[in-house]
Amino acid sequence: AASDVYKRQEIDALISELGLHDSGNLSPTASQIRSLLAEDLGGPLQFVNFLAFHDVAQYKNSDDSTMVSGEEAYNRYGAVAIQHVTEGGGTLFALNTVEQTLIGADDEWQQIIIVQYPNVDVFINMLRSPSYHAALHHRNAGLKATKLIVTRPLLV
Question: Has residue 3 got a pLDDT over 50?
Answer without folding.
Answer: no
